[in-house]
Amino acid sequence: MNKRKSIVFKYFALCTAVILISFICLGAVLLLVSSRYFIDEKKSLMIKNTEALVSFTQNELEKNPADWKAAVTTKMHEYSISSNADFLMCNSSGYIIYNTAASTEVEPTVISEKGLEPFGEKCSYTYGKCDGAFTQNLHITGMSFSGNGPVYYMLAFSSKTQQENYMWNITEVFLISMVGVLAVAMFLVYIVTLKFTDPIKEIAEVSKKIGNGDFSVTVPDYDVEEYEQLSNAFNEMAASLKNYDTMRNSFLANVSHELRTPMTSMSGFVDGLLDGTIPKEEEKHYLKIISSEVRRLARLVRSMLNLAKIEAGELKPNLTSFSVLEPIVDTLVTFEPRIEQKRIEIQGLDVDRVNLYADNDLVHQVMYNLIENAIKFVDEDGYIRFTFTPSGDMTVISIKNSGEGLSEDELPLVFDRFYKTDKSRGLDKTGVGLGLNIVRSIIKLHGGKIMVRSVKGEYTEFIFTLPNKPSDE
After folding, report:
1. Residue 403 DSSP class
2. 110-132 as b/e, with b when 16 or more CB fall inside 10 Å?
3. Which of 470, 471, 453 lies closest to 462, judged by CA?
4. CATH number at residue 333
């Protein structure tokens, strides 16, 4: 069973969790601040009312010492209603003179001396039971005062239930608001999440089409920078895949052609030899042709194997130090008959020793392919010129031949596999079009570069670099 969740679900769940956690934190802070605010406001109001009642009581005691209780108790009830708190008045011994509270839980008959200790001539605040006078913890403010001699105490008190009711009202409003805002936020997050994942779905659809071989599709542009980068990278990848697919098809077509042509010829000649169609006196001639075609097939297979090894990283160069002239002279000796036939002048070999630090056999193959190519296209009585220029850890080598040269359209294609110019197809019937491609691969394997330049009707020149000493020196 597939338990993987979509990015829409994960992103939606993540955003919802973040919003919910934010609300919880905000609610906790709100309740803490509200509780603190309630206590501070309640305390301030109770102190203010207590001081006002004390002042009123003192005036009544002075003005009407015989009948002051009625006015004071009435005023205490007025302040109790306006401040949502209860008031009591007691004498210095703690006996209650009057209490506005109607609940038995807050109707003490006497308050101990210890319970009255926190209250002096200046109004003060405490939270507790007033040394057991009350059966529950209360917010209490109180102060002592004198009136016509005796000392009295005026206390204001409020139960925690009021604070809890206030906090519950705040919580209720907050929860209702939170549910409403959370519903709207989740809806918006869901819409944004779908919008956010639309490009991913588009890219997935394009990927399926490319996977089915349709390389003409592309990912559209986006106005989000990251998606735009992904779109560009994906389109570049698609273009590369299309190019590789074209190259693969071309490679298969060329290989098929290169293999089919000599095999068809050999098959026809062998059948002719077997059924007697070819006369006895011409058998040797056709056997030479068959031998030539076999060598051509061998060169094709060997070249393809070398390319495959280089591209797979399986061909490791055996680096040694040797003179660059060694593979050049060996190759020129191999082609000596053709050089003499076209009366080619070899230039630039009268130099001091120029060392390379490379694989001798691979460099020999590079020189063989480039010199063979130069001999193939040099004009009669023309020249092949070699130059060697040390440059740091590398040596720049140039092989230049006079002749017809290459057109600007042909220059970018000369290193492609199986590419042959029209002139090459006329001059060389045995080549397979892999020589220059192998040259580039071998030079790249050594960390060098190769380029070609040509002037139509004048010359063609291949310029490349090879290391002349170990890279760690």
Report:
1. B
2. ebeeebbeebeeebebbeeebee
3. 453
4. 3.30.565.10
Task: Give the separation between CA 375 and CA 373, rounded to whole angstroms.
Answer: 6
Domain match, 304 and 335 both: no
Mention every residue, 6+ apart, whose C-beta is less than 8 A from residue 446.
317, 358, 359, 362, 466, 467
Residues 324, 462 within the same domain: yes
The boundaries of the domain holding residue 143 are 7-165
Q: What mean pLDDT value characterizes the chain? A: 81
Bridge partner residues of 88 (DSSP): 99, 155
Tens-digit pLDDT profile for residues 404-435: 888 887 877 787 765 655 444 344 444 445 67
In angstroms and rounded to an integer, the radius of gyration of the C-alpha atoms of the chain is 52
User: Where is the domain boundary, 248, 275, 309?
Assistant: 309
Q: So what's the pLDDT on residue 434? A: 66
pLDDT in tens, 17-58: 888 888 888 888 888 887 788 778 888 888 999 999 999 999
> Which amino acid appears at position 303 of this protein?
S
Would you list the DSSP string of 65-120? TTS-HHHHHHHHHHHHHHHT-EEEEEETT-BEEEE----GGG--SB--HHHHTT--
